[in-house]
Every structure is written in C-alpha cells, then in structure tokens.
C-alpha cells in the first residue's frame, strides 16, 4: 500500500539553497524513493514571483513523489500540518562577515516563525534550522515554540561534518564512505571543532584503523585540517561570491534522512561516552563560550 504523504516545509524556498533543496526533497533524496511528499514553500512578499517560478518548475519536473505544492508568503499557511520543517529563510552573510553578523536580522525571523510552527505544525514535527547563525536561531525557535519537543529541534552542522569527510578523503585518496565517526563540536562558525580522535578509516583491502594512525601527521590534523573545515564556508563565499548552496542542501537531506532512518527508534537521540583529551577540551570550551556570547547577543536583539 502506498505511504501517506509527508508534509515538508522549506522556508526561504525562493533563495539559492531553497532552489537546490526542493528538487532533492521531491526526488526522494531526503525521505526515500517510496515516500510521497507534499511540499510547503515559504518566502517573503518581495520574493513572491520567484517563489511562484520555483513552483512552476516543480510542476514542470513532474516528480512522481510530489503530491502537492503549497507556495505562500503567509507563515501560518506554510506551517499548517507540517511533519518536517527545514528553516532556510533568512539573510546570508557576505564576504568578510562572520555568521553572527546576520544575527539581528535573522533571530527576529526565528522568533516569529517559531510561533507559527507552535500553532500550526504537526505535534511531532521535526525541525532543522539552516539559516545562520544556525545554532542560535534554533535556540530562539525552541524558546518560542515550547510545545515542540526540544529533541525535535536541531540545526545544520552536517555540512561541516561532510566537509571534514571531504578533506580526509582528499588527503588519503580514499572515498568519503571509508571514513566514519568524525565529530563536529559546537557552533556552526569559525570556532567549531572538527574532532577526528574517535574517527576511523577503512583503507581498501585492509581493516578499520584510527584516522590519526592512517594520516600519520598530527600536525596537519591539529592545524590545517581544522582551520580548513572551520573556514570552508568563507572560502566558498570568496570563490562563488555566494555562500554554499548545493552542499548545504545536500547536507540538509543527509541530516533529516539519517535522523529518521539511521538513528533507531524513530529518531530518538542517544548519548555515548567519549574520552576527551586536553587539546579537544580547550577547543570545545572555546566554541561553547562563543555560543553563550551569541545567546546573550540574540536576546539583546529581541529586546
Ligand atoms: N548551516 C549551514 O550549514 C548553512 C547555512 N546557510 C545559511 O542559510 C541561509 C540561506 O542561505 P541562501 O539560500 O544562500 O540565502 P538566499 O538569500 O539565497 O535565500 C534566502 C531566502 O530567504 C528568504 N527570506 C528572508 N526572510 C524570510 C522570512 N522571514 N521568511 C521566509 N523566507 C525569508 C529570502 O527572501 C530568500 O529567498 C543563510 O542564513 C545562510 O547563511 C548557508 C549555507 C550553509
Ligand atoms: O559561511 C556561510 O555564511 C554559509 C555557511 O554557513 C556555510 O557555508 O557553512
């Protein structure tokens, strides 16, 4: 029997990530090739024409899984009954800016949209905040949508995770699928800490080994590798004059897909115990400190 359609909201759907993301969702990249979708797209008034253009293209693409499309500039309409909300709407940073520089514009959007989700979304709606500053926007959304379970509100650092896999795979000349258990700690910002201490590599025709022993260059892992991942967003902006879009859209699909389908028991997160060395502790503390500062700044923007 065919599955019931899942309602997926994409805010900022007329923007560049939105344009890359909606066809991925409609093709089943996020929820699987047997999962019908009803796509809800939200953007703001000045983007109405562009949003309708995206809707026209979705019709023209004749996606077999796409049952219906709601395209609107009304957050209450957009959030109605949604099971998954991918919050991309907001203002991207430009060259030379830090992500927290877009704070004042974006946190007030997240406060307003939290209220719309609170009133209209399905009770077990799962939320992924993509727009920057992603962690802090997610915090604001949690505060102003108290009936959405806290464990259902997440932000996108999967792109950083994928970037770390990409760097290791280029360095070792292996496929990304051969690397596992890389961790991104902390803020989606230049203080984030990509941690390879628990990561392993399975080289072709060999058994699984710690990343550190296969790379055999702690200096690279502790310096250039970390800064490359931390600064990758800025490097893309410098190259494209626009921030990452196709990789962000792809990471959003990875995030939701793994959350729903790989993590057992319908997305229940679980804790693992890890040994943290002094090097990691220092880096984790630095990014935690920045998150606390961002929180204070965010609340001052809302007052
Ligand atoms: N967490 C991550 O890994 C990443 C986050 N980002 C962030 O994602 C966000 C979107 O980036 P892009 O798509 O490149 O930007 P964009 O400017 O191309 O698109 C953003 C869209 O949001 C819309 N928008 C603005 N205010 C809105 C509101 N109140 N409600 C609904 N829509 C609204 C705009 O009209 C625009 O269509 C930015 O904040 C960017 O910094 C980008 C890349 C990676
Ligand atoms: O760097 C930016 O502003 C966009 C982003 O979050 C990323 O590419 O990681």
TrEMBL record:
UniProt binding sites for NAD(+): 12-18, 43, 106, 130-132
Gene Ontology biological-process annotations: malate metabolic process; tricarboxylic acid cycle
Top-tier EC class: oxidoreductase
Protein name per its UniProtKB record: Malate dehydrogenase
PANTHER family membership: MALATE DEHYDROGENASE
Residue span, Lactate/malate dehydrogenase N-terminal domain: 6-153
Gene3D superfamilies: Lactate dehydrogenase/glycoside hydrolase, family 4, C-terminal, NAD(P)-binding Rossmann-like Domain
Entry superkingdom: Eukaryota
Catalytic residue positions: 188 (proton acceptor)
Family: Belongs to the LDH/MDH superfamily. MDH type 2 family.
EC annotation from Swiss-Prot or TrEMBL: 1.1.1.37
Entry keyword annotation includes NAD: yes
KW NAD (keyword) present: yes
NCBIfam families tied to this protein: MalateDH-SF1 (TIGR01759), PRK05442.1 (NF003916)
Catalytic activities: (S)-malate + NAD(+) = oxaloacetate + NADH + H(+)
Start and end residues of each Lactate/malate dehydrogenase C-terminal domain: 157-264
Molecular-function GO term, any one: L-malate dehydrogenase (NAD+) activity
Binding site residues for substrate: 93, 99, 132, 163
Gene field: mdh1
Keywords: NAD, Oxidoreductase, Tricarboxylic acid cycle
One protein family per Pfam: Ldh_1_N
